[in-house]
Amino acid sequence: MDHTSLDIFRVVAAELSVTRAAKRLGRVQSNVTTRIQQLEEELGVPLFRRDGNRLTLSAEGDRFLGYANRMLALADEARQVLSPQAPSGTLRIGAMESTAAARLPGPLAALHVQYPEVQLRISTAPSRQLLEQVRSGLVDCAFAALPPCGDMASASDLEAVGLIGEPVFREEILLVLPPGHGAVRQGSDITVRSLAAFADGCSYRVLAEEWFGHDRTPLDIQEVGSYHSMLTCVAAGGCVSLVPRSVLDLLRDPPALRTHVVAKVDTWLVHRNGYETAAFDALREALAPFISKQPVVKRKSS
């Protein structure tokens, strides 16, 4: 169960194809197959189900993938910690779609220019999934909006599950309504009962559901994959949505939609308790102008 075998397993699990995994890894297919077989023999369980050339993760493989990700992340963290003189290595950053689009390009570009040896890997997901990815080691840190209600809605809740966070960006969250909709002061004023939103786990979706209230007909949720799709649904007249103002500001020709300010929500930079690398410190350095404008949560030593 060495680093190379774990890395090969992770890539095969992502591609679900030995051919694609071998190409991505720059290895011959027979080598990839042998490594997987050796790992299965060592563990004593099949990691994949095989149906001809089609691969799917077995239940054991799915569980082992979490361990493999954490072991690889810990090995990379150890290498960085033992060579702290200059930021280098890989920094895996998770972010909400809105943060990745509207907030991160500037700071990450500055980080890349100053520390080109740091390899940045960016992925996006709803906040709840991002917090779980940090906990499980799939990403090193994440930009997430803490749910207005739930298991991790505050700094103390984060610390209880081994995470540390600090607010970085403050977003003004807008209720976006179709053209011609009447003025809105509260949820009961909304005549459209369909909400365009990301998949379950999005903090803004939770905020919308709470703001609408539970005393009326339940919302019809239309799950979409981007803010552009949300705005299109709203412009067509069939939905409302919650969108950060920073996302609307990115549009060259924003649609003529009615908006109403619902809340101001902080986006937090979250990482595992004790995670300290030069690359992560470089990220915080690039974010310093934003972090300094928010009350900082004291970081807890491991």
Please tell me about this protein's structure.
With 302 residues, the chain is an alpha/beta fold. The protein folds into 3 domains: 3-64, Arc Repressor Mutant, subunit A (Orthogonal Bundle), CATH 1.10.10.10; 75-168 and 267-291, Periplasmic binding protein-like II (D-Maltodextrin-Binding Protein, domain 2, 3-Layer(aba) Sandwich); 171-266, Periplasmic binding protein-like II (D-Maltodextrin-Binding Protein, domain 2). Helix content is 43%, strand content 23%. The chain contains 12 helices and 10 strands. The strands form 3 sheets. A 6-stranded mixed β-sheet has the order 4-3-5-10-6-9, with helices on both faces. β1 (48-51) and β2 (54-57) form a beta hairpin. α1 crosses α2, α1 (3-15) packs across α4 and α2 (18-25) packs across α3. The protein is globular and about 65 Å long. The protein starts with a helix and ends in an 11-residue tail after the last helix.
